[in-house]
Amino acid sequence: MTVMLRAEGVSKAFGGVQALRDCTVEVEQGSIAGLIGPNGSGKTTLFNTMTGYERIDAGSVYLGDRKITNLAPQRVFALGIGRTFQLTRIFPRLTVMENMLVAAQHTGDKRLHNPLARAGGRADRRRAADLLEFVGIASHADALAETLSYGQRKLLELSYVLVANPAIVLLDEPAGGVNPSLIRLLSDRIRELNAAGTTFLIVEHNMDFVMGLCGQVTVLDYGTVVASGPPQIIRTDPRVLDAYLGITEEDDDAER
Question: How far is CA 214 from the centre of its chain?
């Protein structure tokens, strides 16, 4: 299959801390891929380098055949990479609909330069309403975003990203702190979007969520890829049990 997004030999240090070390990760077009690892393993840093929020020290990032290394975040977004954040980035004092209309202004077209479009045209409002309906929060369209539950804020951020019709969406901890019913809704919507052609790369600690959704899972430890493969292989890989779950082969033998 065609590789849509690739980080190739990426390294990134913060002072004396090496967050990523010669890290290579590929995401195939049309897939739902997972990225897991213990806290501090470099997952969010990798997201940040892929989307322009951090400049890399070495290596390259590609979207298809196009090199996008160290492009500004807005350029990356305009090229078709959407992403959410571990801590949601929404406008709490704006209504849910107003949040969506702000997103519509950042789709890279001429509306950005037209002050009359800032209130949102009919097409923008219709698209925003459809997306809010899709993620299940249309009834909150006129509510201030700060009144939403944590899970609903996650859904708003996802719909915010979808306004631009991204080819690939990077989700950072989408199920973190979210109740089970909203997690099921989120899973269903990701599957629907994927069936319609959207590619996903998901960072998540909820293993049931990752293993149930992803066809390919990559494991980071200390900024290095230690394993990559389908969920059924990753679950039993001794390197993963050691690095991510803290279970060594000796522990496993002892339990038997």
Answer: 13
**What are the tokens at 115?**
């002050």
pTM of the model: 0.86
Q: What is the pLDDT of residues 10-59, one digit of tens each?
A: 999 998 899 999 999 999 999 999 999 888 899 999 999 999 999 999 99
Instruction: Give residue limits of the domains in the chain.
Output: 1-80+166-256, 92-165
Which residues pair with residue 13 across a beta bridge?
18
Question: Helix H segments across the chain?
Answer: 43-50, 73-78, 96-104, 122-135, 150-162, 180-195, 207-213, 231-234, 238-243, 249-255
Using alpha carbons, list the distances in angstroms from residue 73 to 50, 54, 167: 9, 9, 15
Helix, strand or coil for residue 72?
Answer: coil
In the CATH hierarchy, which fold is given to the domain comprising 1-80+166-256? Rossmann fold (3.40.50)
Helices 150-162 and 96-104, packing angle to 10 deg: 30
